[in-house]
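Appendix B: complex inputs.
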Amino acid sequence: MNVLLFLVPISLLLVGLALVVFGWAARSGQFDDLDTPPLDILGDDAPAAARRPSGGARRPGSPDAR
Amino acid sequence: MAPADGTPAPVLPAACAHCGETTPTPLRRVVDGASRLYCCRGCAGAAEWIADAGFGDYYRWRSAPGPRVGDSDDYRDWDRDEVLDAHGAPVPGGRTIQFALGGMHCAACAWLVDKALRRECGVLDVRANAVDGRLRLAWDPAEVALSTLLQRVARLGYRPALPASPGDDAARRRQRRRELVALAVAGFGTLQAMMFSEALYLDASGSMPVATRDAFRWVTAALSAPVVFFAGAPFLRGAWNELRLRSAGMDTLVGSGILLAWLGSVVETLRGGPQVWFDAAVMFVLFLLAARFIESRLREANGARLDALAGAQPATAWRLRDGALASIPARELAEGDLVQVGTGHALPCDGVVDGDEAWIDEALLTGESTPRRRQRGDRVLAGSHVQAGTLRLRATAVGAGTTISQMARQVAHAREQRPALADWAEATSRRVVGATLLLALGVAIAWSLVDPSRAFPATLAVLVATCPCALALAVPAAIARAQSRLLASGVLALSADALPRLAAIDTVAFDKTGTLTQGEPQLLGVRCFGTLDADAARDVAARLEAGVAHPLAKAFSVARGPAAVGAVLQPGDGVEATLDGARWRLGRRAFAEGARPAPTTSAAAHGDGVDDPDDGTLWLTRDGRLEARFEVDDAPRDDAAAAVAALREGGLRLTILSGDAPVRVAALGARVGIASGEAHGGLRPDGKLATVRALQDDGRRVLMVGDGVNDAAVLASADVAVAMGGGAAMAQREADIVLLGERLSPLVGAWRIARQTQAIVRQNIGWAIAYNLLVLPLAALGIVGPGLAALGMALSSLAVTANAWRIGRGAEAAPHGAPP
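Resulting structure:
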């Protein structure tokens, strides 16, 4: 049963990790609206023509950063 | 995609392919390869843009027709620095701001808004949230003006407005995320703790080495500690508060249950006792948290849709002081300030007109879409739009004091109120808590006399098993779900008891004008008797009606020439004015021909006499000579017949109570499917009231549907009062329920939902009580242990909440039928 000495801490570590990740996701607003983002993958990629390349790449300021 | 042509097609009234509104004069455009009909250029433009941008999927994904586009406002005020400073915040590379977006209700809408804005240059980030109806936008003011972005959104039909209270908003969002994290801690912790508990359970024969067993117990204790003390903190805090106030409530039971289970288990672990109950503690917390989380999500969904009301006031105002105009943030306005509002802008405050006349669109508040003329001394309300002219007004109420803010608060307040049944359920569960605590004490004493080693688990099981959590959740969960379904279909329940009462009705009384009919009279025919030809007669009539801003003016199209000055409305009879030197009268025949107005009493108070003619005709006379006769009538709403049929199918008795001529009421009844015996015409408001009273004396419970303007007394006396048409209705305190759109069928849906809610509430209460009664003896006798009791209790709470979700299921398929 000595294997438990490794397995138990590992499982605790994984739980802690999962919680940290979940907390980060919740705090960054990923659970705020669960209906809209899934629609994205249903559609074809929109023509990205109208955007200037500079605008598309950077996205520094998140409105939820506060 | 080039529009085929803009000419109105000569077709029957058709539903707009974008917003679903029917219009008698649709525009035909070729969009996305198919020819479709649109109600206005706004909607057609939006549809073309959506197709060009490759977002046609929107039409496939949306669950309801989009918002009508119409003409968009001017958002240039939003580019001014002081506005941005007041309502936005700086972020690296730009600014961020938050709006309540009117009309954004479904995921497809949010998707469309998000896509549309991301195409624009200078947009840093977009978060369109369909759940709370918010748009959070970060952009670079150096690259793109905020007004451009707002225009883009407005041209799709979504109306940006400042959220009523951005502070609350952020707090709510943080609260939701905190709850989510707590739920996750409880979930992960419970899973792990259960895993180790399971190992201990499976070791029934006691073959596990004591050291391993104790190690497992300590690990379980460590894993369940955050569940109990972090995720379960709301329960512990609540229990502490209740203890301080010396009123035992639900939290006392839950808090003491989980605390006892955890501490008792730790003691047993230290002592090396035979059993631990960490599993009971963590399960209890997890499932109760889950049930509460679902319930508060249900509640939140309600709130989001009301903000458009409060958000209708503009952000800036032009204040006139010492002869100079200055633009200031609207919230800096004070009572008594002189304010100037230009054409196309919304009024920032309530006030009294202090300058030349202007035409004001008060649709938001009165439901009346034709602009009204307002002149010096008239009262005007915040949120109205100036259609023509420049309005100068002296502020009488600002900020939260404006009529529209008060209305929004009234609605919000109604939402917070709890129906009598919910109070009953809570009071009952409080009594149950008291009884449970006594019972648990009894069980503890009894067992310690019989078998002291089983006293603790049995007491714990009683505490946990009999917690009336399901009972406390039974009503609020159902009501919250029902209200969010109602709001989604454009029905506002203003009073807390509206739903139970709506479920109990057996008779529906309709008003005619504006309720069963569209309330927009149409001119069917003109006959001339004098020197005027039909067009000229119509012109004169239009100018007369415009002079008193009467709704009938619409029937005569736009007045060519100035409105009649000094026009006088004789309530119940007609209009009189001097025009081009002649004395004109328009109204009932007797009045028009110069007979003295009959002494009208009750009708006078309501001022709608002109659409009250005896034979459905208006007569026009010049200096007492008959000039023309107009036939004016009002078409039934498109879905009136369908709604009537559906209500009748539901076993309701239907009747019309109208002030119009009996012949016309009977004719309308025949068209919508109400027998002539039930179509009562020629009723004055007191007659309507008497009819409703008579029905009630027969033991009937009457639902009255009116347009909310003329029917105050009848509405107040009915068991349930339903008002059509947004703002005006909301200002009517008599209305229990307001239908926000131009359709009657939501009423049918609301009635079905109310009945279903009633049934589900009964099921829930029955289930909760039955479960508690069943499990109590088992727990007291020690047959059901704490772990099983916790599982059963929590599942019972979840069952009640899940049952509430059934409300309104299947109703979605009903009359939404979105083209294309």
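DSSP finds three helices and no strands in chain A.
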